[in-house]
Design a protein that fits this description.
With 291 residues, the chain is of the alpha/beta class. It folds into 2 domains: 172 residues, Glutaredoxin, CATH 3.40.30; 73 residues, no CATH class. The protein is 53% helix and 10% strand. The protein contains 9 helices and 7 strands. It is elongated. It comes from Theobroma cacao. It is found in: Endoplasmic reticulum membrane. It is a multi-pass membrane protein. Component of the oligosaccharyltransferase (OST) complex. Keywords: Endoplasmic reticulum, Membrane, Signal, Transmembrane, Transmembrane helix.
Length: 291
């Protein structure tokens, strides 16, 4: 009788353990399926999270989770602040997401790109300890505390946009993002329209060229170009550009007075080179017209 009870206990324990393992696996697979569905609904592959979905996918499931998150923290009310570059960084983040999905479509890499908006999810901002923007965090499968166990991208790495984001992900996850697929400057429709316009205009342009009626056949255009090149070369304009020299300075003794010629040595203002060059050009033209 004791043996039967022991066997019954072992069978019950094994059955319960298998049930819990299967239930956990089914729960994890359902979460991954939900994430894949949300990813497919997004044009760029970036999943939009709020307080409810943060709880569903991050705080409620037990660790280790079967996926990792790269999260971009956004605030639409700050998009107008040009010094933050939030709009540009959000677009670059979307480029990284779409490029990663395209380059790793055949592999089973459960890395999801997400964004969280401040007005919608202030509680989530507090959970992550986000108090400044721009802000990107990587949440790994074993992260229990979203603030302490997740990894933040360094603020100084945002200068290279999508490329620096890809390097951050690759260095932390050991995954390969792959090349960044940037959209072309002109779409296929725009290229087709330009090609059609060129075909339409080509007979008229050819007629003008053979008749010698284009701007390139006008001596005044060549004369103006030659004068510009000459003036640019002798006026010190290249020196002003390289040295970033100002055209003039404000007089220290009289703020309402401008100084065009520097009295000291070792420095030349832009106007000092332009003034004699203008006179030189005028003299050459007057000499030419006199002949």
């Amino acid at each position: 009788m004791a043996i039967s009870a022991t066997h019954l206990f072992l069978v019950s324990f094994i059955t319960l353990s298998l049930f819990l393992v299967i239930s956990k696996a089914e729960s994890e697979s359902e979460l991954v399926a939900d994430l894949l569905a949300l990813q497919s609904e997004s044009k760029s592959g970036v999943i939009h999270l709020d307080d409810r979905t943060v709880s569903k996918f991050l705080t409620s499931p037990k660790t280790p989770r079967p996926y990792s998150f790269v999260i971009f923290f956004d605030a639409t009310q700050l998009h107008d602040k040009s010094e933050l570059h939030l709009r540009e960084l959000r677009n670059e983040f979307a480029l990284v997401a779409s490029s990663f999905i395209t380059n790793n479509n055949s592999s089973n890499t459960k890395l999801f790109f997400c964004d969280i908006e401040f007005r919608e999810s202030q509680s989530s901002f507090h959970l992550f300890g986000v108090n400044s923007l721009p802000h990107i965090r990587l949440v790994g499968p074993t992260a229990k505390s979203l603030k302490d166990d997740s990894e933040q991208m360094d603020q100084g790495d945002f200068s290279r946009m999508a490329e620096s984001m890809a390097e951050f992900i690759e260095s932390r996850t050991k995954l390969t993002v792959g090349p960044i697929h940037r959209p072309p400057i002109l779409s296929k429709k725009q290229l087709a329209l330009i090609a059609a316009l060129l075909l339409i205009w080509s007979p008229f342009v050819a007629k003008k060229i053979f008749a010698g009626q284009t701007l390139l056949h006008d001596p005044k255009i060549w004369l103006s170009g030659a004068v510009f090149v000459y003036f640019f070369s002798v006026s010190g304009a290249m020196h002003n550009i390289i040295r970033k020299m100002p055209m003039f300075l404000v007089d220290r003794n009289d703020p309402n007075k401008l100084v065009f010629f520097y009295q000291g040595s070792g420095m030349q203002l832009g106007a000092e080179g332009f003034a004699p060059s203008v006179w030189r050009c005028l003299l050459r033209f007057s000499f030419r017209s006199g002949r």
